[in-house]
Write a structure and sequence with these properties.
Layout lengths: L2 E6 L4 H14 L3 E7 L6 H4 L7 E8 L4 E8 L4 H11 L3 E6 L22 H11 L4 H10 L6 H14 L5 H21 L4 E6 L3 H7 L5 H4 L25 E8 L2 H4 L12 H10 L1 H18 L6 H17 L7 H12 L22 H11 L14 H12 L10 E4 L3 H15 L5 E5 L10 E6 L5 H8 L6 H15 L6 H12 L5 H12 L5 H17 L12 H17 L8 H16 L8 H12 L6 H14 L12 H9 L3 H14 L2 H4 L17 H10 L3 H15 L4 H14 L7 H4 L5 H20 L7
Parallel strand pairs: 1-6, 2-5, 2-6
Antiparallel strand pairs: 3-4, 3-7, 8-10, 9-10
């Protein structure tokens, strides 16, 4: 006997009812379901008595690729109904799709992600034909609110039409070939009893073609080869490659994750609403939605009167009749509510006219309507559900360290105490894995932060169970999982401002221990590939600070940081010498130059670049007219910090001469150059006042502060106004005491007696004062032009 194919839309109550009726009427010998075939030996886990929604979470990791995937199931998922009803009817039930780790799924994170994007042209034509705004409204019009009579035939016609306009990709073809092998095996095993096949409607036409008489030889398999059959006559479930880690476990799911308005990729939006449709029908669901929306709005103090509720109900009923719906559809109720409750002009379409997440600034009534439709149900697994080893390891560690104090627990940890340090490491490992439960509110923020205590406070544990199961994809123990997660973050976050540096410090907080070599190997590779000076400088500063100063986490003078420090220093020097272009000051880049200086001065034994070579590179950058002006100033400061090389020539001799040269490009260029210099060598100003020069010789040259004072005093008012922001930004590098010394020198040059603080304090913003002066001069010129400046 041949197979009966039911093409369904995932999470559709109408399709779920059809599956339930078909199983009852057909009494099949086999029920085949689109789902992960590797779960066939564990289907009993799905039927333990969970509170839905739940999902099959699958993970895969090898040296080249990591992937995770979910196959969600709720009460009205056709796949769930097929599993439950098939078992009740005495049928053999099997999942027939490829494992989620298989390359056929590529980057797909949701097994049931619809192929709607690929058949958008057909659905758009149908939307125009039926005068609806979206594919969801079209589906409701054709299937959810129509009588069940003839539903299977309508579904067949619909999916044949939309698949006819779409081209399956290589992954879909491999999946369909594999599922077809299961169908053929089931038909052979069932003899003259029927076989029911429940898959997404996109795959149904292809499966019918692949399993038609005479099509077997042409079906083929992945890469043109047939799928291997086991000794039991069923297709073999592909095994992961040697050395790869893969697995599947059940996790609790939630309506929020299922909702298209929260970004879900497949199936029906508004899962809370369709749960009511499944349980009580569309009329009861419509009444319930009206009531819940009003209750939510009133709870938010949004004015909704009884007359508003009556108006919304009347509008919904009128729209149902006007649109020819035999029962109220979701959009009838939502449009009725919007018409009755929203009197403002909306600057964006109502969200149910399309798909996607709610945007910021949505009308409060719209927000509550979407939330009411979505529902807040969260699934719960049966206590006997198997969990990955990580779940048990975490439970044991929390109990052993007295960290299982419940949802109200607060922990004050002394990092100099061995037990508290270990408790801190466990909490940080949970944090980097994204496990909810505790949040750190105080503690050290970088490798040389002189803070030796931490405070952790309780937070919501909602989703903790699912997060732990999902984190099991990283490893069997908490330390291993945290290490893999941090290594992955290092590989994928090289462009982030604090990605690799943050990962390094997080690794320290987690306790480098047994996984330091793995993570530092990733960081060593990362620093030699990074092309952004800012993130690279953060890595170098973090690693160097830990190597030099750490006494709490056990990293001081540790050899494992040497390769990171060496690689980052060498890469930064290369990037800085190649920098070109832009005006302005790049502060992360200047901090990177500071990190290079500190590495060369304080950790020379770790570096393959000598001090002399680094100083030579700095001089070349400082003399390069194509280099960014702030980098030239920083390189000048770096060269002087590293010392004069005998016989060298160029910019490292006399700072006063260099400043005069830079000033010819304008006051703003001078300010940017000085910002670079002051980031590296403030003592060029504060350490060389009076007759002392920056290079330590007495009276050989003017002090830099005198040169700058002369240059700024010579500026016209217009030039000063243009250069003031850059100059002010440059001197912001000086702390208050050093500014006081500069101010005192300026007063001394003018022969003014008094406190230097008078130059450091104004009654208004200096930029505002400068702009006011410029405005006054502009007015004076205008008056003079029209001979209106005479004094009466």
């Amino acid at each position: 006997m041949s197979a009966v194919f039911l093409g369904v839309r995932h999470h559709s109550p109408a399709c779920a009812r059809l599956v339930e009726r078909t199983v009852a009427e057909l009494r099949p010998a086999q029920v085949l379901i689109e789902g992960p075939a590797e779960m066939n030996g564990r289907l009993g886990e799905l039927l333990l008595g969970h509170e839905l929604p739940v999902a099959v979470f699958s993970h895969y990791r090898d040296g080249q690729r990591a992937a995770t995937s979910w196959a969600p199931l709720c009460d009205y998922s056709p796949e769930w109904v097929a599993l439950r009803a098939g078992r009740s009817a005495g049928a053999e039930v099997r999942f027939i799709d490829l494992p989620a780790w298989h390359p056929a799924f590529a980057e797909r994170t949701n097994r049931y992600a619809d192929a709607e994007a690929r058949y958008a042209e057909a659905t758009e034509r149908l939307c125009r034909q039926f005068a609806v705004d979206s594919s969801d409204a079209l589906w409701d019009r054709l299937f959810e609110v129509e009588p069940d009579v003839g539903l299977a035939e309508r579904l067949d016609a619909y999916f044949a039409l939309v698949r006819g306009d779409a081209e399956a990709d290589a992954g879909d073809r491999a999946r369909e070939s594999y599922m077809a092998a299961w169908v053929r095996a089931a038909v052979e095993a069932a003899g003259d009893r029927p076989v029911l096949v429940v898959t997404g409607g996109f795959h149904q036409p292809a499966l019918q073609a692949l399993t038609a008489p005479g099509a077997r030889d042409a079906a083929g398999g992945q890469d043109g080869e047939g799928w291997e059959l086991g000794t039991d006559g069923w297709p073999v479930v592909p095994a992961p490659p040697d050395g790869a880690m893969a697995g599947s476990f059940l996790v609790p799911y939630s309506f929020r994750k299922l909702d298209a308005f929260a970004g879900y990729q497949s199936g029906m939006p508004s899962p809370g609403y369709y749960q009511q449709v499944w349980e009580a029908g569309p009329e009861a669901a419509a009444d319930g939605l009206l009531r819940v929306v009003v209750e939510r709005l009133r709870a938010r103090k949004y004015p909704v009167s009884t007359s508003d509720l009556i108006a919304a109900r009347s509008l919904a009923e009128g729209l149902t009749a006007l649109r020819g719906h035999p029962s109220p559809a979701r959009i009838d109720v939502l449009d009725g509510l919007a018409g009755a409750l929203i009197t403002d002009d909306l600057d964006r379409p109502l969200p149910w006219t399309g798909r996607g997440t709610l945007t910021a600034g949505a009308h409060p009534a719209v927000v509550e309507m979407v939330a009411a439709c979505g529902g807040d149900r969260t699934g719960r697994l049966h206590p006997e559900t198997p969990a990955p080893p990580l779940v048990h390891d975490v439970a044991a560690q929390l109990a052993g360290l007295a960290l299982d104090g419940g949802p109200e627990a607060t922990y004050h940890l002394d990092l100099t105490d061995a037990t508290d340090l270990e408790r801190s490491r466990v909490l940080h490992r949970l944090r980097v894995l994204g496990i909810p439960g505790q949040v750190r509110t105080a503690g050290p923020t970088h490798g040389v932060d002189p803070v030796f205590t931490e405070r952790w406070e309780a937070q919501s544990v909602l989703g903790r169970e699912a997060a732990l199961v999902e984190a099991g994809a990283y490893g069997a123990t908490l330390a291993e999982a945290a290490a893999v997660a941090l290594s992955e973050r290092t590989r994928s976050g090289t462009a982030e401002a604090d990605g690799p540096a943050g990962a390094l410090f997080d690794a320290v907080l987690c306790g480098m221990g047994g996984f330091s070599e793995q993570l530092l190997g990733e960081l060593s590779s990362c620093v030699r590939e990074l092309q952004a000076t800012g993130p690279l400088g953060e890595i170098l500063a973090t690693a160097l600070g830990l190597w030099r100063h750490d006494r709490v986490f056990g990293m001081a003078r540790g050899p494992l940081l040497a390769t990171v420090i060496d690689g980052a220093t060498e890469q930064l020097l290369w990037l800085l010498e190649g920098a070109r272009g832009s005006s302005g000051v790049d502060f992360p880049r200047l901090r990177a130059v500071v990190a290079v200086r500190d590495a060369v001065l304080h950790a020379p034994e770790l570096l393959s670049v000598t001090r002399e070579v680094a100083a030579g590179i700095a001089r070349r950058i400082a003399e390069d007219p194509q280099a960014p002006i702030d980098v030239r100033g920083a390189a000048f400061g770096l060269a002087r910090s590293l010392g004069q090389i005998p016989g060298s020539r160029g910019t490292s001799g006399d700072p006063a001469r260099v400043v005069r040269t830079v000033a010819r490009a304008g006051a703003d260029a001078l300010g940017d150059w000085l910002a670079g210099l002051f980031a590296l060598a403030r003592d060029e100003v504060t350490g060389a006042v009076g007759n002392d020069t920056a290079d330590g010789t007495d009276g050989a040259a003017e002090s830099l502060i005198d040169v700058l004072d002369g240059l700024v005093s010579a500026l016209s008012d217009e030039e000063f106004l243009m250069g003031l922001p850059a100059l002010r930004q440059a001197f912001a590098f000086f702390p208050p005491r050093e500014r006081d010394r500069i101010a005192a020198r300026l007063l001394e040059r003018r022969g003014v007696r008094g406190s230097s603080r008078s130059l450091l304090r104004t009654t208004a913003d200096p930029l505002l004062i400068a702009r006011a002066r410029a405005l006054e001069e502009s007015v004076s010129r205008l008056l003079a032009r029209y001979e209106l400046d005479a004094t009466p």
